[in-house]
Amino acid sequence: MKLPLYQVDAFTAIPFKGNPAAVCFLQEPMPDAWMAAVAGEMNLSETAFLLPENDGYRLRWFTPAVEVGLCGHATLASAHTLWDSGRLSAQAEACFYTRAGRLTARKDGAWIEMNFPSRPVEPASAPEGLLEALGVTAKRIAQGGNTYIIELTSEAEVRAAAPDFSALARLPLRSVGVTSRAAMPGYDIVSRYFAPQVGVNEDPVTGSLHCRLAPYWSAILGKNELSAYQASARGGELRLRLEDDRVRLGGQAVTVLEGSLQC
Asked: In the annotation, is 46 catalytic?
């Protein structure tokens, strides 16, 4: 059996920028261990698996190490692939059934807008060793679930952060984002995201992080629409719009590889 397989760079319109994700279309349910093995073989921060269900697709996301409950860039890559491959008309909404509930996406010109849950954070103290592992001094600290948000004083500090990933992986947390107001013209905020506990030392561009950054920065900046840049080595940009308990995540995507998976 051959299964269609794509590699898409998400949150960018430029090949080899943004965050790469594999997108695999299934014909029938496959064992979890098989999907985990495929994700390990792809060795990207996420591999998405889509199986037709009702008016859309069952969507699951795997890193090379674990299955995750919410992923923005692989959802963006999946929606892009549905339209780009002709599986869905440009006017149709993409619908996904996931562990995070029903998610949708629609085309908006050259951009794709996804409807995701907002994930508010609360002021917190850093776990012992976190700031040392990141090598930063915090301006403010917030926590949502087992993810920490560390606000730094400047974009330069965000870009200069050089975490000790071995030390970070030993801490009792899932992931951490560092963020600040943007110095670059045209952007409100910048960030980086580290998650060695789930097999991704630094994620190039992270939609799920921005489900937390949107309410965090909206409260500080007093605005519900934000332009964000994730300042990883690959880099990527997002448009954020906070609407009650939802975040509209906007991004672009480009297909860089199309083939089939032998199974």
From this structure: yes
